[in-house]
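Quick one:
INPUT:
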């Protein structure tokens, strides 16, 4: 089902625990590669590269802790989370991919 828009959009959204477990959302799987590095693979490829946004989940993080979206393709995207000094570190996050 598409939302009312100028284009017929596909949307995948989810929440991922720090250990790489999917805690909310459907139509994707998560692979935790290493500390703070997660690959989200979409069950159905997008027609073109989606726009992807991610943000940390929870209240226990320093405002300098971060999340970064990298290398989005029609099939998958990498999300990298980090600590307050910029090193990759496991963090729970929410994401939305739309395209």
């Amino acid at each position: 089902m598409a939302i009312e828009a100028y284009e017929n959009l596909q949307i995948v959204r989810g929440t991922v625990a720090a250990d790489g477990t999917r805690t909310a959302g459907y139509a994707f799987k998560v692979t935790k590669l290493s500390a703070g590095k997660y690959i989200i693979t979409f069950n159905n490829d997008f027609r073109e590269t989606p726009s992807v946004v991610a943000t940390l989940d929870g209240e226990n993080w320093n405002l300098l802790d971060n999340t970064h979206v990298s290398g989005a393709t029609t099939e998958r995207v990498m999300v990298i989370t980090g600590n307050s000094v910029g090193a990759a570190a496991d963090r729970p996050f929410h994401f939305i991919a739309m395209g």
